Each structure stands twice: as C-alpha cells, then as structure tokens.
Amino acid sequence: MEALALERKEEQKRELKERIAQLKKERNAIILAHYYQRDEIQEVADFRGDSFLLAQKAASTDADVIVFCGVHFMGESAKILAPNKTVLIPDERAGCPMADMVNVEGLRALKKQHPNAKVVAYINTSADVKSETDICCTSANAIKVIESVDSDEIIWVPDKNLGDYVSKFTDKKVIIWEGYCNTHDMLTVKDVEEMKAQYPNAQFVVHPECRPEVVKLGDFVGSTTAIIKYCKESEHQEFIVGTEDGTGFQLRMDSPDKTFHFATKYLVCPNMKVNNLKKVVRCLETMQPQIYVPQQVADQARASLERMLQVK
Ligand code: 13P
Ligand code: SF4
C-alpha cells in the first residue's frame, strides 16, 4: 500500500513537471529558485542560486516572465531590476521575517541621528526600505560593498549577526540594526558542540546570519554559495552544515560522495518552504500573484541594487 502511494506521488510530480515545462514555453518564462527551496522546486529551476546570483539573473534574462521561487523581497528585487518583465511568485505568503524587522520610519529616524553615515542594506529588505538606502549587498559581497562606500560611517540594516561579522573586516564605524533571521539565529553553541562530538571528523561550515558565538566555531564561514563552493572543492569528506537545509540539494548534487549533516532540524525556513510544484503550475496558468512595485520606489531602490551589482 505504501509503495503504491509513493508511486502515485512520483507520478503526480512527473505530471506537474511536464505541465510546468509546457507552460514555461507558452509564457516564455524562466524559473529562478533560491537554494533554500524544496528539492522539487530546485529540480525544475532554470537557475538555482543565492540572492546575489538570482538578482543578477533577473537583471539579465531575455524571458518575458520570471517565476521567482524564494521569498517576497527576492521577487521585488527581480521586478525592480527587470521592470518590464512580469514577475510571478508562487505564494504571496512567502515573506522574510528579518526583512520585516526594519521599516522606512525607523530607518529615517536612525539616518537623522547619523547624518554623515551611508546606508548599506542587506538585500533582505522591502523595496520601500531599499529606496531609503545608498547601496544593497548580500552575504556574498557584504564586505566588498562596505569597503566600496564613500564614507567611514555605515548604517547597516537589518541583520545584526551579519552586521557583527562584516564589521570585523573593516575599520569603518558600523551602526547595526537589531534584526535577525529567525532560522539561522536558532542555532546555538550547544547544538554545534553536540554535533561536533557526534561527528569528530566533520568540518563545521556556517552562514554569517548565525549568532556570532556560533560563527566563531566555524571551520569555514561564508554565504550560501561560498559554503557550497567550499564543500565541493575541499579535500574534507564530511561536513556539519550551519545554514538552511534546502542547501543540501546543491551540496549533494555537487559532491555525491561526501557526507553532509545539518546542524539541527530547526534550520528550516518555513517561509521558503511554502512554494511547491502545484503553486508553480497555478501561477503560470493564472499569471498571478504578480509582484508590483510603485515606480518612484522602484527607481530609488534600483539605484541601490545597481550600485551593488557594479561592485567588483
Ligand atoms: P544568501 O542567499 O545571500 O546566502 O542569503 C541567505 C538567506 O537567508 C536568504 O534569505
Ligand atoms: Fe528570511 Fe532567514 Fe528565511 Fe532567509 S532564511 S528568508 S533571512 S527568515
């Protein structure tokens, strides 16, 4: 009975994938999927990537329609960078709690207190907030972006953990907002120590959205892409992974012979997981939900995103 149910599920998946391929052709659409998406979504993606790579892809695609499988701010960034394209997201409820921890009023008040500071915004922010900033960054380029800014004083929003990490690599004064990622911030020193005791030969690779005391334990610290690259190229065979569990899809694909242990069962972003194949089909059929960003906000936010894309 169980085997039959499994077979039926696989068949349904195959049908959904075929329907997606057909709809993609009809709509001239591409599917962009963040590394934290469910495996089934990553399997149908034209491009998988971290927030930086996906922003680059959105800015350069020839497709008419972008299906953004990630969270809301990522879809917004795609729309801002490709204003003439239709940007669909499979489920509007896919938000990012960290992005919601900073708003325009709060940021304006902080800017007033530090009139000489330039604002560097993690891409995990709303379009409204981006429109109030000087330059965006992702975890893949944060240090380079800070160094590129023409000011010795930086307001950093919204991730306090990434802010703490990057501030160690610059002499600039970094004024850090108090936001955090509910998922990465869950990981504790105790979790990591227990895993290290269980897997003494494993290297601990960690995302800087984790708490500073956890990041300190890392054999390697980097963005999602940097972690994937490091594990692929490393001579080590076993890793404890301190980032969201969807990353396992690319890690296992790149290094099928290596072993990856996820540091806890809590390293799952529930917002990233609301997307599924059925919703991808539905959004391509109905062309809804679409991302809209008011033009003035988009123009200001685009300047900030494009400055980031130009940082070498
Ligand atoms: P990156 O994609 O930049 O690694 O960011 C991690 C993240 O939490 C995205 O929401
Ligand atoms: Fe936001 Fe964290 Fe989820 Fe990324 S992993 S979308 S930062 S809550």
TrEMBL record:
Report any one BP term from Gene Ontology. Answer: 'de novo' NAD+ biosynthetic process from L-aspartate
Q: Please tell me where this protein is predominantly located.
A: cytoplasm
Q: A GO molecular function for this record?
A: 4 iron, 4 sulfur cluster binding
Reaction catalysis annotation: iminosuccinate + dihydroxyacetone phosphate = quinolinate + phosphate + 2 H2O + H(+)
Q: What pathway, per the record?
A: Cofactor biosynthesis; NAD(+) biosynthesis; quinolinate from iminoaspartate: step 1/1
Its cofactor is: [4Fe-4S] cluster
* A Pfam match: NadA
Binding positions for [4Fe-4S] cluster per the UniProt entry: 96, 181, 269
Note how many cofactor molecules are bound and how.
Binds 1 [4Fe-4S] cluster per subunit.
Location of the protein in the cell: Cytoplasm
Enzyme Commission identifier(s): 2.5.1.72
Q: Name one GO cellular component term.
A: cytoplasm
Binding locations of iminosuccinate? 34, 51, 122-124, 139, 207-209, 224
Keywords, in A-Z order = 4Fe-4S, Coiled coil, Cytoplasm, Iron, Iron-sulfur, Metal-binding, Pyridine nucleotide biosynthesis, Transferase
- Functional description taken from the UniProt entry: Catalyzes the condensation of iminoaspartate with dihydroxyacetone phosphate to form quinolinate.
Family, per the entry?
Belongs to the quinolinate synthase family. Type 2 subfamily.
Tell me the protein's name: Quinolinate synthase
State the encoding gene: nadA
